[in-house]
Fold:
Amino acid sequence: MHALRRERLENGLPVIFAPLPHLHTVQVVFSVRAGSRFESPRDSGLSHVVEHMLFRGSEARPSSAALNLAVEEIGGTLEAATHVDFTELSLSLPASQLEEGLVRLAEIVAAPVFADFEVEKKILREELLDDLDDEGRDVDVDNFARRRLFGSHPLGQSITGPIDNVMGFSVDDLRRHHQAHYTAKNSALAIAGAFSVDEAADVVRRAFSRLPAGARILPEPAPSELPRTRFHALKHSDSQTDVRVSYLTPGEHDPSAIALHLVEHLIDGGMSARLHERVIDRLGLAYYAFANLDPYEDCGVFDLGATVAHENVPAIVEAFLTLMEDLAREPVPEDELARIKQRYLWGLEALLDDAASLAAYYATNAIFDKPWTLESLTEAVRRVDAEEIHGLAARLFSRDRAFVSCVGIVGDRRAKKIKTALGLA
Structure:
């Protein structure tokens, strides 16, 4: 489907080159195994803070203004995001500026100076306040649902961490975390777009050899047992209630991983898919509803969610539960599965027109040891059949494996209906 070359630098950094000569830009993605899953309660939020502070300057350009100028004067745009189990820095560039862009990105990830931390704390505080109510409670429904699912396990922590943690971190904490995580063996680099692989490889070897080898950071294993309590509601005064119905799933290295991704598309793979057709078009229960597979290395979570009028909470929970049960009742019709597969494969092919998404795909695959090229993933998708999805759904999506989390106004009567739907009352 496209050319691909892999290398590993002497310090252990895996590098993936995906030339797309028909494009006019190039994208560089640096991914590192740093996120809330790798943090102790004391360090909860630290990965996200370090990601912010990488923009505060490097040894060569020791201020936020100097760093931003260094990126933008070569036509670049630098973005970053912290996730549960990885942090990603993404640099888009004109093809002619790849060499200089690689040098400047290497400076950012390898030699940050963590300047003006007290100023950045003010910005971080504003970001964190967005998830808190007037009493200081975290009312983000996704954070609430993960805490209910995983409890004190690191997977139950929010990505941004408690505000008291963030306000209490020191520059020494930032350096400690950076030194442990931002190493060659704990990271990966991917480049996609219009460039010469040989020329880029020479620059990468020079620029990123300064990263220490370090060690691969391993997470605490996922919990082996399901939580006992399967319905939780947090009272929060608002005009609507946020609802999540969640199922624990196997992780990305499980043989069922590809079938799980297809289940996500069967449920929410467009406006003709089952979720939109039933919950919105037919029942009119929500303006917007979604299904999402959140996969980790050794486990995952399949969520269905919506924000609805308080009186519609039991009805949408029932609709979500029934939607997933239907997959287990009978195999997916062949024409529906063929249509969903085709849309999924079109999405993979479209990556060849999207350097940013392709580079992110390969960088993330590398840090999690996922073997998929676009070609091998295409073949794996084609091999999934209706019986595999039927069997998977029967194992994973029964009502006794569903967890419901609500943030809003539920009340005793509606709570009883939800518990009855879950088989708890």
User: Anything to note?
Assistant: Residues 5-208 form a domain with the Cytochrome Bc1 Complex; Chain A, domain 1 fold (CATH 3.30.830.10).
